[in-house]
Structure formats: structure tokens, C-alpha cells
Specification:
three-stranded antiparallel β-sheet, 12 strands, about 45% helix, 14 helices, 2 domains, Aspartate Aminotransferase, domain 1, binds pyridoxal-5'-phosphate, single chain
């Protein structure tokens, strides 16, 4: 199976498994796991923050951060396609009682002007605006990169208005590799942000949340409270250390493969795609012109050994370290065949 469904589908490599098998471990809950501590130090250093905490998932990073930053009835500003709105099972409302104002804007991004206009007046009728959240890269926007300038201007706005600024950095390192902007520079304006280890970095599990010492102490209390504190978690943290040492620069291959996919697919009749919009490892294309919809298309592709995702007439593929150039060419051939069979 050629698995283009998501970069969450990666299998830990032999070398990564070896690093896991040989990891030094201890009681993580007591702060005594050397591998977890090293992973947190490496991440804090990479992001230029005081401290970091290892968590089971990116969703938990977002939810703990939101819980620390927001009181019930307060409001978060983010893009309407954001993960925290659409894919966290209502966690923001359930755990923190915060509401979210979802902003419009192309490519999964909103403008500084839109954010400024969304900040509520300080009167008794309005929820208190508390947090601005951006997703780097913007997942449902097609893996687009928020420009450093916009990130910085939103940070200035947050500071002027007394708001907290949080980055969902599930794919921050894809943005770093594709843009040449350092992780530290992207991270600088944020009060909190996190990296996912289980996406393009190729780990089986885990994410790391970073911020000030005081913020991470609060995050640790919530990690304990919600059952996220672990024991010999160095076994999985070792995968993260391995990934930070070996799997960052190679994200460029995933971006090249995504571009290759889009450029090859462009010539297929019935497919709408703009290769210029592909900035990292996520590609959306539309098959409305073929007369097919996503469900039968995805099923027919699966039958040909290619796994991908879709809704309506929009299809998404994501490249990652288990996808080669050859896999891309095979997948495009399978798409050509499926669309031709549908025409007949
Ligand atoms: C995957 C993802 C998450 C959640 O990460 P998990 O580790 O799967 O919980 C959050 N935000 C974005 C943008 C993501 O792509």
C-alpha cells in the first residue's frame, strides 16, 4: 500500500527502533527519565524557549495550553479551518469552557487586520478576547506557511492588546525547512508552541510543548491531572531525539515529492490543481471535473493500493518519509487509471 493518507502513517525506521531499544530510561513522572529530559531540553533549545514538556499527542499540547491560557467564557481567535475547532472533539469547550471565533481567509490563514477587527470591545456584553492561535503550517489550508512577517505582526498585536499568543506547530519544522526561517525566529513571538513528533518527523508517538518555565510548570500539573504523566517514557522519547537529529533536513524530500505529485497530476483531465500553491508536504486537488466524488474515488484508489483522503470533490495527499519518488509516479498513474475507468 502506498500510504498518502497522512504523515501520521509513517513507520518507525530500523535506526529509530534501535535508538528506542537502547534508550536510557527512568521515572518520567518524577522528572527522572534522562531521555525525556534530553528531548525536552533539545526542543526548548530548538525553539528558543525556557522549558518544554513531553506529551502523548499534539492535541493534548493544544488542550493543556488553552486550559492554562483561557478561563471559561473567554474567546480564542483562530482560522475557521483550525485543528482546535474541527478535530479535537470539542475539547476547547469541554475542558476550558472557552469559545472560538473562527476567521476566514485564503490558504488557512487570516490577516492581521482580520485579527484586529475580531478583538472584542471591552464592554459587558462581549466575551473577553484572550488568545490568538495560528497553525504552522496551515493543515487544511494545504500545508501553507505563515510568513514570518505576519507571525511577528500578529505577535505585536497580541502584545499591544494584552492577549496570549499560541502556535499549533504540528508541522512547524516543515515550514522551517521549506522557508529557511529558523524555528527560533518563527517561535520568538509566541507564549507557547509545540512540535509534533508523530507527523513528518516519523516517530510512533509524542509531541513536545514549550514556553516559559512558569508555563511549563503549569502544563506539568495539568499533565499529571489528566493522566498524561508517564513512567519509562524514554523508550518513546528516544524516537523523538533520533528524529530531531536525523529527520528534520530530509523534510525537503517530502516537499519535493509533493511538488512533483502536483506537477505530474496537473496534466490529467478532470483534475484541478495548482502546483504553485504547494508549499510543503500537503496537496489538495479537486476532481469535480471528472464527474467523480471523493468516496468512490478514494475506494477505487484503495483497490489499486493507494490510500488517500477526501471529502466532497476535494482530495488530500500528504507526503512523508515512507513515500519515494517512485511511489508518487505510481500513485499518479493509479489516479489516471481510476479517472479513465470512471469515464467509461
Ligand atoms: C495532527 C495535528 C494536530 C494534533 O496532533 P496529534 O498528535 O495527532 O494529536 C494538531 N494540529 C494540527 C495542525 C495537526 O495537523
Amino acid at each position: 500500500m502506498i500510504n498518502l493518507y497522512s504523515d501520521t502513517q509513517t513507520q518507525p525506521s530500523k535506526a529509530m527502533r534501535l535508538a528506542m531499544a537502547e534508550a536510557d530510561v527512568g521515572d518520567e513522572q518524577r522528572g527522572e527519565d534522562p531521555s525525556v529530559n534530553r528531548l525536552c531540553d533539545m526542543t526548548a533549545e530548538l525553539l528558543g524557549k525556557e522549558a518544554a514538556v513531553f506529551l502523548p499527542s499534539g492535541t493534548m499540547c493544544n488542550q493543556l495550553a488553552i486550559h492554562i491560557h483561557c478561563r471559561p467564557g473567554e474567546e480564542i481567535i483562530t482560522h475557521r479551518s483550525a485543528h482546535i475547532i474541527n478535530f479535537e472533539a470539542g475539547g476547547t469547550a469541554a475542558f476550558s469552557g472557552a469559545q472560538v471565533q473562527g476567521l476566514d481567509g485564503p490558504k488557512g490563514q487570516f490577516s492581521v487586520e482580520a485579527a484586529r477587527a475580531a478583538i472584542r470591545p471591552k464592554d459587558r456584553h462581549s466575551p473577553l478576547t484572550r488568545l490568538i492561535c495560528v497553525e504552522q503550517t496551515a493543515n487544511m489550508g494545504g500545508g501553507t506557511i505563515w510568513p514570518l512577517k505576519t507571525i511577528q505582526e500578529l505577535g505585536d498585536l497580541a502584545r499591544q492588546q494584552g492577549l496570549v499568543y499560541h502556535m499549533d506547530g504540528a508541522r512547524l519544522l516543515n515550514a522551517v525547512v521549506a522557508s529557511g526561517v529558523s524555528a527560533k525566529d518563527f517561535a520568538a513571538p509566541f507564549d507557547s508552541l509545540w512540535l509534533d513528533l508523530s507527523k513528518g518527523l516519523g516517530c510512533p508517538v509524542g509531541a513536545v510543548l514549550a514556553g516559559s518555565k512558569a508555563f511549563i510548570e503549569e502544563a506539568w500539573r495539568l499533565k499529571q491531572r489528566t493522566g498524561g504523566a508517564m513512567r519509562q517514557a524514554g523508550i518513546i522519547a528516544a524516537a523523538g531525539i533520533y528524529a530531531l537529529e536525523h529527520n528534520i533536513d530530509r523534510l525537503a524530500e517530502d516537499h519535493a515529492n509533493a511538488k512533483l505529485f502536483a506537477e505530474t497530476l496537473r496534466n490529467l483531465p478532470g483534475v484541478k490543481i495548482d502546483p504553485a500553491e504547494v508549499e510543503t508536504n500537503i496537496v489538495f486537488f479537486d476532481i469535480a471535473g471528472s464527474g467523480m466524488t471523493a468516496d468512490p474515488f478514494v475506494a477505487a484508489m484503495k483497490a489499486k493500493g493507494v490510500d488517500l483522503g477526501g471529502a466532497g470533490t476535494s482530495i488530500r495527499i500528504v507526503t512523508h518519509l515512507d513515500i519515494s519518488r517512485d511511489d508518487i509516479m505510481t500513485a499518479v498513474e493509479a489516479i489516471r487509471a481510476v479517472l479513465q475507468e470512471a469515464k467509461r
